[in-house]
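Re: the request from the purification team.
They wanted to know what the chain is likely to look like in 3D before they choose a buffer screen. I agreed to run a prediction and write the result into the notebook, where they can find it.
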Amino acid sequence: MNESSGTHYIDDYRAYVAEIRERFPDDAMAIAVGGGDFVRVGTQQVSLLKNFGLTAGHFIVDVGCGSGRLAAGLTQTYGDEITYLGLDVVQDLLDHGRTMADPSYRFALNTELTIPVADQSCDFIVYFSVVTHLLHEESFKYLRDAARALKHDGTLVVTFLESRRHWSIFERVVNIYDMPDVKEPLVMFIERSMLEVWVEQLGLRIEQIVSFDPPDQSIAVLKPRAD
């Protein structure tokens, strides 16, 4: 864990959240994690994770936990029956997340592309809308450390953008590229073929890829490969 800045994903997102807080002080914590119905989306995320095998007694790491949307949903469903660690690069978001979560849940400022836990200690590691804001090399490095931290039967959940399914988002990124007044965090796309290569190199396997219509981010469910 490190509080220093100087990396795009730290500086860009801190600037983005600061701007949102200035423009939308009443709704900043929801807008910072994509807007929408804060409670409903958190509940949906918990339902997805339950379908992927999350249960009481598990240790879950929420990478890019934001303002506590998933933590709030987990609190309603499991309370202190799970062990939770939320990581983010913005302290304001972490502070808000604590107010939404069970007192046993831990939150930590983390600016490194690593998971600050012991080897093979996590039942679940989730990246909701995280690799969408990282360079490919950064995403691979982060996922490589997640593979280290997963138990042999653990689950890694990663949401991602793919150009065919999310073309409207890609077009928007292209259209605002030369607009100096529009300042948003980096948006990156990962095609399934690239994800397949990464997973092979990381000693993981793709258990399933889930897609919904209208097209939210695609969801990859990854497990350690039994060699």
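For the purification team: Strands lie at 59-63, 83-88, 106-109, 122-127, 150-160, 204-210, 218-224.
Please add any questions underneath this entry.
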